[in-house]
């Protein structure tokens, strides 16, 4: 799996169950047909945010730009700390769902949880996109256990 280049995102949630987030590379569009597009995200079942996303019923996929590896490093837990500290690294706003949307992200997909299940060690969540915000730029990739960029 490490040989496959994947865009890096930070998935966040907030609501009655609490606020949290984590870095992920397993995110994919499911469908652009119908009323709303849908996204699929895989989260390690033992991760802190997984039960909060289920309880809150909302999440935001913040696709990182090529110069935002620091967010991935913190939200992956590699640098230690707490989620409250990680959110202090940037400016966040709320779109439709109330989940934190990183203002400097390349794309924000603000979603309502519609389906979920467990496969192996991971929760698979599917969300209906309620709001979308995008900016110009290039995505941050993770490949060969390191960060990469698209070449010109």
Structure description:
The chain contains 3 helices and 12 strands, in the order βββββαβααββββββ. The chain is globular. With 152 residues, it is mainly beta. The model has no long low-confidence stretch (mean pLDDT 91). The strands form 3 sheets. A 7-stranded antiparallel sheet has the order 3-2-6-9-10-5-4, with helices on both faces. It has a 3-stranded antiparallel sheet with strand order 1-11-12, with no helix packed on it. It is 13% helix and 45% strand. Strand 4 and strand 5 form a beta hairpin. The two termini are 25 Å apart.
Q: What is the count of β-strands?
A: 12
How many discrete domains? Answer: 1
Task: Give, in spatial order, the strands making up the sheet with the most strands.
Answer: 3-2-6-9-10-5-4
Class from secondary-structure proportions = mainly beta
Alpha carbon gyration radius? 14 Å
Brief sketch in words of this structure:
This protein is 13% helix and 45% strand. It is mostly beta strands.
Topology:
Blueprint (H helix, E strand, L loop, with lengths): L5 E2 L1 E5 L6 E5 L2 E5 L6 E7 L4 H8 L1 E6 L5 H7 L7 H5 L4 E3 L5 E3 L4 E13 L2 E13 L6 E3 L2 E3 L4
Antiparallel strand pairs: 1-11, 2-3, 2-6, 4-5, 5-10, 6-9, 7-8, 9-10, 11-12
Key features of this structure:
mainly beta; Pnp Oxidase, Chain A; 3 helices; 12 strands; globular
């Amino acid at each position: 799996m490490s040989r496959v280049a994947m865009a890096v995102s930070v998935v966040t949630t907030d609501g009655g169950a609490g606020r949290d987030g984590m870095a992920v590379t397993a995110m994919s569009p499911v469908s652009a047909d119908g009323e709303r597009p849908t996204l699929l995200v895989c989260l390690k079942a033992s991760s802190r945010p997984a039960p909060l996303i289920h309880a809150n019923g909302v999440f935001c996929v913040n696709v990182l730009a090529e110069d935002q590896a620091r967010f991935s490093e913190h939200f992956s837990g590699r640098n230690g700390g707490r989620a409250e500290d990680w959110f202090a690294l940037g400016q966040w706003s709320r779109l439709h769902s109330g989940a934190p949307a990183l203002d400097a992200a390349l794309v924000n997909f603000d979603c309502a949880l519609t389906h979920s299940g467990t496969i192996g060690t991971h929760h698979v969540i599917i969300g209906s996109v309620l709001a979308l915000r995008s900016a110009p730029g290039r995505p941050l990739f993770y490949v060969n256990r390191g960060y990469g960029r698209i070449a010109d």
